[in-house]
Design goal:
The chain has helices at residues 46-57, 82-99, 104-113, 125-199, 205-219, 222-241, 244-265, 268-288; strands at 7-14, 18-27, 32-37, 60-70, 78-80, 118-120. With 292 residues, it is an alpha+beta fold. Helix 7 packs antiparallel against helix 8 (268-288).
């Protein structure tokens, strides 16, 4: 199925000693770009989390936020180092008085961010593992929600793709009908050019053959029409696979055939149809950059 690179997932799990909140937001990007914000106490788990995000979400700009609130103070493993924080506050207040800063709340926030402001107590290995299972469960749920979001968005984009491709297909049929009216005019133009060449005093047989081939190739758009029709059918087949990169490549091929039809047809009516085809193709290109 087609997946959009735009997605959002959130999970909140309440356990015996803690509440875990995990959020995942994804946007389109050519590469995998992960921004990971997790508590410092879990920094050693960051690589594991990044690998999980990469494997599950594949590609895109990924923003991940994890927050943990301990409902049991004893199990949090941390407490404020009050003597050191008092010393920080004293020094900060003295500096604040010098510079005329009077917001005690801001000073306290700064003091809590300074080194060793917290005492870290060692929790048992069994308790740490149990907490990590809870955290990992929240992370997986958030990723699952994000994936569901991407699939819903992908289905919307898929329907839009079909709409745009069908429109190009309708315009191609109009081009085929107009080409039937164009061919007599092309034939007459070609006949006149050949007649003028044959009546010339310096008639050259080799040049005649080259000119004939040139004009036939210049005005004939049969191959381009067939290839464009084939690309449109194949585009819908790739939609079922959900391969965004392949869709992007197909857009380039479709655009090449449309441009060639416009340049070779030499017909005002067909040129207008080509412009409308290009308009629909641009809509597709805008969306292909946002699908996996």
């Amino acid at each position: 199925m087609l997946k959009s690179m735009t997605g959002f997932g959130k999970s909140v799990i309440e356990a015996k000693s803690l509440t875990v909140t995990a959020e995942v937001k994804t946007l389109n990007s050519k590469f995998t770009d992960i921004y990971c914000r997790i508590p410092k106490s879990l920094s050693f788990r960051e690589i594991e989390v990044r690998n999980l995000l990469t494997q599950s979400l594949e590609r895109g700009k990924i923003e991940f936020n994890l927050s943990i609130n301990y409902t049991d103070v004893a199990s949090s493993g941390t407490n404020i180092n009050r003597p050191l924080v008092d010393a920080y506050m004293k020094d900060l207040q003295e500096s604040a008085n010098v510079y005329g800063v009077a917001d005690i709340t801001e000073l306290f926030k700064i003091a809590l961010t300074l080194p060793n402001a917290y005492n870290t107590e060692t929790v048992s290995e069994e308790q740490a593992e149990e907490e990590w299972k809870t955290i990992l469960s929240a992370v997986n749920q958030a990723i699952a929600e994000c994936t569901k979001f991407r699939l819903r968005e992908g289905e919307i984009v898929k329907n839009k793709f079909i709409e745009y491709i069908d429109k190009i297909g309708e315009l191609l049929k109009e081009v085929e009908e107009q080409d039937k009216l164009r061919i007599p005019a092309v034939r007459e133009r070609l006949r006149k050019s050949v007649t003028d060449l044959l009546e010339a005093d310096d008639f050259d047989k080799n040049r005649f053959e080259q000119e004939l081939i040139y004009y036939i190739e210049k005005y004939d758009i049969s191959e381009e029409k067939v290839r464009l029709g084939t690309h449109l059918v194949y585009f819908k087949e790739v939609l079922k696979e959900g391969n965004g990169k392949k869709l992007n490549f197909l857009c380039q091929e479709i655009g090449r055939e449309i441009n060639t039809i416009g340049s070779k047809a030499n017909d005002v009516v067909i040129q207008r149809m080509v412009i409308n085809m290009k308009d629909e193709l641009e809509k597709i290109k805008e969306q292909t950059s946002n699908v996996l």
